[in-house]
Amino acid sequence: MSFQKRLTFLTVLDSLIVLTAIYISYIILHPTVQVFTYKTLLISSVTLLVSHHIFASYYRLYQKAWQYASVGELVAIVKAVSFAVMSAAVVQLVLFQDIYVRALSLAWMMHVLLIGGSRFSWRVYRDRYIKPKSEQERALIVGAGAAGTLLARQLLNNQDAGIVPVAFIDDNTHLLKLDIHGIPVVGTSVSIQEAVEEWNIDKVIIAIPSLSKKEMNSIFQECAKTKAKTVIMPKVEDVMIGRVSVKQFRDVEVEDLLGRDPVELDMDSISKKITGNTILVTGAGGSIGSEICRQVSKFQPKKLLLLGHGENSIYQIDMEIRNKYKNDFEIIPIIADIQDRHRIFEVMELHRPDVVYHAAAHKHVPLMEYNPKESVKNNVIGTKNVAEAADTFSIGTFVLVSSDKAVNPTNVMGSTKRIAEMVIQHLAQHSKTKFVAVRFGNVLGSRGSVIPLFKKQIQAGGPVTVTHPDMTRYFMTIPEASRLVIQAGALARGGEIFVLDMGEPVKIVDLAKNLIKLSGYTIEEIGIQYSGIRPGEKMYEELLGDNEVHREAVFPKIFIGKAVLGGYEEVEYLIHEFVQMTSMEIQEYVLGLANKKSVQENEFVS
């Protein structure tokens, strides 16, 4: 009904309730004896009626949506009724020099019961009889804390959500067997499978914002034992401010299971390095380079230079940042090949960046085994071009994005990355530019990651191909890797090789199984096929040992490596002679050079 009709209806209803309450109170207290005069009763009734409407209007009882009534609405009713009865008591005292306490107390109780009952009965009727429950999905909410109870309440009040919460799961044993909003807490996370079967659950909703990645993985593994779809609740703040609907759940992603808890960055040091300065990112169209551009943009540089070889990828990141940041800072897309020394020097001289993030590289291990010359041209000579240009024009900081495969490398890609580190370490000894390298392992979702391949294989119906059942790797997410690269750049003093803590290793076959389950299939439906180790691959990626890394982290998850120096003459020989060398000779040379040990160590103490 319209607001005017609704206001009229509630006003008339409340008037009848008020009069009924005071007259029933009079009859209950004095069924035969007339203590009140009709004048006293009339004046008290009129006073109570008028004051009720005044306070009901003040507390907006006529503007509330009673189908969503809760404790807040009940408090408003109690306040309005209490002040109305107090007003009647004051009038009685002034006119009759007496307050009929028992009658007013009884009227107050009946008033609250009848007003509250009239309002809450609509919500009860709506919840029980109006919602088409047969068409709704039955949901199990994991987490009976603030987020979970908010979610349950929103779902109960939202007729269009298509989801009805029927049970809670929570590891707080004090909540077991209790009801929250009429919904029982039926067990802990280890009993998810049992709860799904017992309560005929269609959807499991994880509603614990503070959940660590390890705990998330543990809960998901329990959910994966069921046929119910597993989703994650939107952020509480987004729901509260209306940015997203309560029914806009997101699927669990592999990053939720394998990523680590986010690191708080040193915003001040990064801001000093980036804000108001000119930043150059090479390989800006790649997965890591583009994410570095996104992270850098948050700090409002004066100018952001997007350098890359592929025009489509540079166009995409250019448009993305322009659309998001409009005219906040200058964005310059640059199509250039880092192997073109003249072009790189031209760009560096023209723009004179304050910081260079060098993310351009060939990263695919098996492909570089087949193309060692291209790996040397891009990863070694390309890095040398960009680094020497930075040195020539006294750029403030140069950050090389390296790889954990540069540690005791067994393949061409890792070897060329280690030689690239040697190039910048050599320059760091005499340059005004602060040269540093940042090593990390596999990045979830990057172009060289197995994730896109697995997803395509699952979409095609399988099987998912895994090289070996015992193959393990270290993983981090693209945003985390990019943020830590930027943080390491802010910590640079010159010559360091920063090593990022990659967390716990993950079996590739377990990663494949999780992706299959996240895609809504069973392992049996898709299948897993072992294809054998590819050229240049290790069974296990190595972390630097205690003798190779400083024990103390210079920043959470960032350590400084003790990288060896020396052998630069051999690097120069490789660069000068590699054109005449065969692919086999290049493979042997770069592997030998990258694994050569020197007695001199780079001891950079934080």
TrEMBL record:
Domain Polysaccharide biosynthesis protein CapD-like as annotated: residue spans: 279-561
A matching Pfam family: Polysacc_synt_2
Keyword check for Transmembrane: yes
Keyword terms: Membrane, Transmembrane, Transmembrane helix
InterPro entries linked: NAD(P)-bd_dom_sf, Polysac_CapD-like, Polysaccharide_Synthase-Rel
Claim: Transcription is one of the keywords in the record: no
Transmembrane domains' residue ranges: 7-29, 41-62, 74-93
Stated family: Belongs to the polysaccharide synthase family.
Protein name stated in the entry: Nucleoside-diphosphate sugar epimerase/dehydratase
Organism annotation: Robertmurraya beringensis
